[in-house]
Every structure is written in C-alpha cells, then in structure tokens.
Amino acid sequence: MSRGLLRRMHAFAVAWVVAPLALVGTPASAADRPTNTAWQGALLPRDSNDAKVFRGSLVFANYCVTCHGFNADGNGRAAHLYNPKPANLRMSDKNGVYFRLIVRMGGEAMNRSPFMPPWGAELTDEQTNDLVAYLRSINARPKE
Fold first, then answer.
1. Total domain count, the chain
2. 22: which of 3, 33, 46, 111 is 20 to 30 A away, CA to CA?
3. What local confidence, expressed as pLDDT, does residue 23 receive?
4. Cis bond before residue 84 (omega within 30° of 0)
5. Hey, CA dihedral for 120, 124, 128, 129, is it positive or negative?
6. What is the structure's pLDDT at 25?
7. Is the sign of the CA dihedral 37, 42, 48, 49 positive or negative?
8. What value does the CA radius of gyration of the chain take, rounded to a whole number of Å?
9. Within a 10 A sphere around the Cβ of 56, how many other Cβ atoms?
10. 110: Cβ–Cβ under 8 A, 6 or more apart, which residues?
11. CB–CB of 86/116 below 8 Å?
C-alpha cells in the first residue's frame, strides 16, 4: 500500500473515533443549554492556550500517534518498523522552534530520522502551532 493511502485510511479511522466523541455532551437544542450568562457558546476562547492544546491533540491523533504512540513516548504501532525509533516527545529537550521546524521540514532536513515525514505541505501554520502547544503541554521533562 502506498504511504498516502495508509495516511488517508488512518485519518478515516481516527475520524470515526474522534467525531462521535466531539458530539458527546453537546446540547441538542437551545432549551438544553444553561440559562446563565456564563455560558457564551464556545467552551474555550479560540485564542486561549487551552484551545491550542486541545486542537493540537487532535492534530497529534491524526498525524503523529501511529509512530509516536498515544502517550507520545515513541512506542506507537509502527515504531518497531523504524530504526532509529520515533522520538519520545514527553522527554524531549527540544524547544518550540525546533518542533515547528521538524514538523514542517521532516526529520531528514533536521539531520534526524529520514522516516519522519515533512508535514509542511499538509498542515496549516495554525495546526503546526497548535501541535507545538500540545507537545509543550505534555512534556514531562523536569524544568531546570
């Protein structure tokens, strides 16, 4: 199977899992919505860091989880196919600029694994920034 076909099949499978989850807890009608003024539509302001992290988690689930794993520890389903193994993103010492570059340009362009594909043509700048926000939020490396 071609890489593009596998990528589309993976995205389709993830969509079948993620889409129903997005509907859970969504009010069915205006009558079901809370009547207080604190509820103003969106649960997270669009430009908030929490919204970026949430959107970044969706990007991660669609593009990265197969290799890097659900825990971002480099133990995804396809990890055993690659040498070197995908990076453990939870313990990465790389900064946001580096993450942005490797996502956009791919591993080979950054003198890392040639198996890390360049996502620059596929992801928008917003998706890339959201992904970086997510990766920074899950980093478990001790702060110095």
1. 1
2. 3
3. 46
4. yes
5. positive
6. 47
7. positive
8. 17
9. 24
10. 98, 101, 102
11. yes
Spatial neighbors of 140 by CB under 8 A, at least 6 apart, are: 90, 91
CATH code at position 98:
1.10.760.10
Mean pLDDT in runs of 10 for the chain (144 residues)? 59 56 49 53 80 97 97 96 96 96 97 96 97 95 71
Note the pLDDT of residue 14: 57
SS3 content of the chain, % helix, strand, coil (to 5): 55, 0, 45
* 125-138 and 96-105 helices, crossing angle to 10°: 130
8 within a domain of the structure (yes/no): no
Note the helical H segments in 24-93: 49-63, 65-68
Is 91 domain-assigned?
A: yes
User: What residue type is assigned to position 9 of the chain?
Assistant: M
Q: Specify the pTM.
A: 0.69
- Lookup: tokens for 78: 């396809």
Range of the domain at 128: 49-138
